[in-house]
Structure formats: structure tokens, C-alpha cells
Amino acid sequence: MSKKEKFVKIHDLSVSNVLLSFVNKELLPGTKISKDHFWKGFNKSIHDLAKKNKELIDTREKIQKSIDSYHLEKKGKKINLKDYKNFLKKINYLKQNGPNFKIQTKNVDKEISSICGPQLVCPVSNARFLLNAANARWVSLYDSLYGANIIPEAKGALKGKTYNPIRGGKVIDYARELLDKFIPLKNQSWKNIKKIPFIEKGELSIKLKNPEQFVGFRKQKGKIFSLLFVNNNLHLDILFDQKGNLEVNNPDGNQDPLKIHDIFLESAISTICDHEDSVAAVDAEDKVLGYRNWLSLMKGNLTSKFKKNNKSIVRKLNPDREYISKRGKKFKLHGRSLLLNRNVGHLMTNPAILLKDGSECPEGILDAFVTSAACLHDFKRKGNSRTNSIYIVKPKMHGPDECAFTDKIFKNVEEVLKLKKNQILCGIMDEERRTTINLKECIRVLKKRVFFINTGFLDRTGDEIHTSMEIGPMIKKGDMKSSKWIKAYENNNVDIGLACGFSGKAQIGKGMWAMPDLLKEMMEQKISHPMSGANCAWVPSPTAAAIHAIHYHAVNVFSIHQKLKFRKYAKLDDLLTIPVDNKKKWSEEDIEKELKNNAQGILGYVVRWVDQSVGCSKVPDINGVGLMEDRATCRISSQHIANWLHHGICSKKQVLEIMKKMAKVVDYQNLKDRGMKDQDPYQPMAGNFEKSIAFKAACDLVFHGKFQPSGYTEPLLHFNRLMKKSI
User: Annotated catalytic sites, by residue?
Assistant: First the structure.
């Protein structure tokens, strides 16, 4: 918080003038909610809810202490799962499953219920990134393929600085193969079509194996400009260059004999605009930056000005796409991704508002009120939700009681904002152990609101380590993905979702592809997500969204759902199998390698978070591979080192030496980082270990990791960022 920050007394609240001005002058005008009504309602709600919020956080700590004591008593002994389950029930960690039920969520958009496809996650603090994400509903396949390592650079197909027709030809060939696969022609190949198709009496001049796949077209000056097809509820738009002289791809003219100058894929079907793990928001100034961007999205007027190739560019939200049906009627397709909002969880408070006892406002409750109020602006224009639903993804909830509390928060918001009951819909992030093993009951308490569940390997592993910290040293981080518990975890999420009636009503999601430059590898591996029954899965960029969309053309997820309904459910015993390795057969080389990998990732992320307020970025790993890092990756790495420290696999001295070595590596990787607009340039940690707040924060996450609530990184990161801002 700025040293000059002023607070204004509103009822029993002390509100930052920065936040107050935003709410009163930007957020509420244009809605039917007066500022007096808003603050009166918020004041009553926040004081009623804050007490319960604190009780739930205290319960987490109480339960953790009980689990720590249990493992200390059983130390060195093999866990008896029957005894363990009885213990977890006794401390109210494991709930009794109630009768079967189906979710009752209403008024969901088609992007949630019936369209399966990629889901982008984007920090709400960056307007340019937000616009890219929102506009990634439609992405150029040609551009995506040309720049990706999917197309090898062999035999003259180098990317280069200028257009390479050899590489362009390979892109065209690849695209034709996709057309043959997903929009097959009758008795011929797209590769052999030489003339632009025409339409006569609503029929295409080319014959499709499935004629219903052709759904519309666009014309320019009386000629066919594009043909629109659909496959697995996803659209594919083929754009033609009638004159053959468009300066796209090949500047000398279109090298494609069919004169296709691009194919646009419906790609990022939905986007999570993130106030949580991918941002660094520690005070009113930071929160308002994110809130203002979200408000502008809901108003439809968000813009971003920047320079590219010495040209000034103004980016704004794409309009809807207009087509003519084969029956000659005009229709539109949504031009933007359906925008969801990820609020923060229940843990953190924020100094933007102080309660009557002087304590900070629970940040998640503040998020719920402000982000929901912003959606009021969209209700008339329906630029986002056509059903006037508000989509809030709620992370880091521990079990059904915390899910029920979220329901209570949303009820309060609906009352204050004069919304309909259950107009605020809730996405459940299945990323904490107590939620995983009680997922059915978590969904039950939110059965009229839930629109989304997903799995998050990183946070979930961080909680796995922290929960069972006392039992012994955990297996290496890279071995977690093949462990018994995580296989059960991934299957359980889908099993429970299908049993609760999610198919055709709500999303079942899977996690992030963290290597945005390795799209060939993503192409090979991420098809496992729709094959597992996920009707959405996370991607880090518009290009990755376009490539991942290919998987949803290849896989009919709803057909997969029908098959999965008959498989055996994941076993609770497998979910509760702790990934501990008491054999301790690692060599010194193995230990050092694991520590270096974890330390480098922590430092690479934390230095940007604390010094530059960057909550998510592509951070080179120890091998130089760019990884999308956020607080979840930091949580697992810091908890893993903390666990090994606690059990004597390594020493504090050893870890500190490695942290200093890796700080030099991170500094070298960031030599050319001068900071983005409105950011400070990169500040090296090496040679400045005593004064570097970022280095100190990274070390604290490791050396005090055992004592962080649920192993979360937020308390220490927020503290150190605020310290940095105060300098």
C-alpha cells in the first residue's frame, strides 16, 4: 500500500480512497445499485461473513495439527488405511457420502454445457493479455502452425524472419490433412480441390460425407469469402482469397492453389480471468487494476495501446462474427471467449478495506462483491453471458463446509446486488486434498450453482505434501505424476462429475500445459485430456488454444462420457495413499539435482513476483525450457524442499548454498529483462543476498514452508511485496 494511501470511513468500514473512488465513480454508475445501498449492504455482509471466514481458516489449522500428531504417533510404521480413514472421519476431515443426486444448475451458456474445447487462464492485471485471451475464441490455424514446432524446420522449412514458402507449404499440407479428417469430402480429398467452392440453392459445389457439417458462409462483393463448418460443436472457418493477391503469408501472392489464405478455428471457448494465482495483488492499488480491467471487459470497452514493429496498435474486443446460413438467413457466432472470473480463496485478507475491529477485509468476499457488480453492466448488452449468469471460479476450498460458505457469500452478494437466486454460478477447483476425498459432498452443497470442476496437479500436490508433512520424506517431484494417488485423483474428478450429472450441463476440466513453446509435445500428450472425459482443459496462450482445439475435433467428449459412466470408480484407498518414500535410497547427486530444480523454479518465480509484481510468466527452468509459472508451481517446489529439510534428506546449509547458486543462474537467465511497461527492471539477487527482498522471500518459503498455512505461498509473498512497494 502506498505510504500516501488515504482511508475514508464508510459505516463501520475504513475504505481505501483508491478503491472507494473506483466503486463509486466507475463500478456502480450505470447500474441500479446506488453507492449508499452497496456500502450499507457490503458493510453488514462483510462483518457477518468475516467471523465465519476466520473460523474456517482456524479449522484448517486445527485439523492439520491433529493429522501431524497422528503421523508422529505412527512414524516409521506402515499406514493402516482402515485406521487412517476412521481417524479422518473422527476429526471431520473425511465426510460420509450422502445419497446420489444430480446438479440443478440453470441458465448456463452453451460454452459451458455443450461446447467442449480449450480454456485459457489469463492474469486480470494485464489488459493486453486479457484482450488476446478474450479474442482467442477464433485463432488462425495457419499462424499457429507456422510458428509452432509441430512443423519441423528440416529440409528448408526454417521459420526465419521473413515468410518461408517451403514452411508455408508444409502448413498448407498439414491443414489439408486436418480438413480431410474433420470435414471429409465424399470420394475426394481437400488436397485435390483446385477451385473455390460455390453455393447454389443452399448446397455446396463440393460434396461432404456429412452435409450437415456445412452451416454457413460469408460473401464480399458477391463472391464467397469464407465457408463455415462444424465438427463436435466446434466451428471451423475457411477463408478464401478470391483475387489471389492478399498480402497474407506469401507476400508475392497466395501459393495455395485453392486460394485458402487461412483457416480460423474456434479455439478458446472459455477464459478464466484470474485474480488469484497468476497475479500479484497485495493492496488497493493492485486490486483496482484488476477490477478495472474486468469491469471494462463487462462493459465491452477494454483497449490496450502498444507498439509493434514501430507501429502504434490499439487492441480491442473482437465483434461477433456474421454469417449467412445455407438457407439464406443471417446469423451470428460469438466473437469472444466466454469470460469467467477466478476470485481468490478464503485464506487471504487485503488492506484495501479495514473492518470495525481494525482487521483487514477477507479478500475473497471483496472479490465476490466487486466482480459480480461489474457483471451488471453486461446484462443489457449480453456481450459475455447470453443467459445473464455470473461465472466465478473459486479456488483453494477445503471440503464441503468451505464450499457451503462460498454459497453463503454468493447469497449475500445476490441480495445486495438485487440479483436472482443462484444467478452467481460457482466453479469448484478440486485442488485441495480435503475437497478431493469429499468431492461429491462439495458439489452437493453447491448443486444449484456449480458449473465447473477441474483438477490442478500442482496445488493438489502441494497440499498432499503439506498435509502429510510429518509422515516422512516425499517421493521426488517428477515421480508424483505416476503415483497411485494422483491417478486416482484425476479419475475421481471425472467419475464424480459424471455421477452428479455434469455431462451436457457443466464443465469437467483438466490442468495446464506449462510449456508454451513445446506445442509438438502438447499435440502428442494433451489429447489425453479430452480422452479422459474433460470437456475443457487449460492452455497458456491463444496459439496453444488453437492447437489444443484440434484434439476436440478429434475426440467427441460426450461419447467418451457415455463410456466412462460404466467404469469402476476411483478408490478412496488409492486417493489416500500418501506418496512417501521412507527407503531414502537417493544418491547425493539425486538429492542435489532435485534441490537445484526446485530452488531454481522458486527463485525464478519469486524474484519477478516480489520485485516486479509479475504473478505469472514464462520462467526458464534449470534446462532453459520456458515454463508457465504461478503460485501453484511455487507451492509444490517450496513444500517439497521443506519436507526434505524436515526429514533430514538435506541440511539448511546445503539448501542455502544451492539457493545462492541458483540465484546466479536465474540472474543470468534474466540479463536481458528490462521489465515490461510500468515495471521496474530486473534486479539481480547474486551479490546482494542480504538486501534482496526477493531472495529472502524465496528462502523463507523454503525454510519456513512447514509452518505456512496449508503450505500456501501467499502470506510470505504478500508480506514481502508490500515491503518492496514501501521502499
Answer: 342, 630
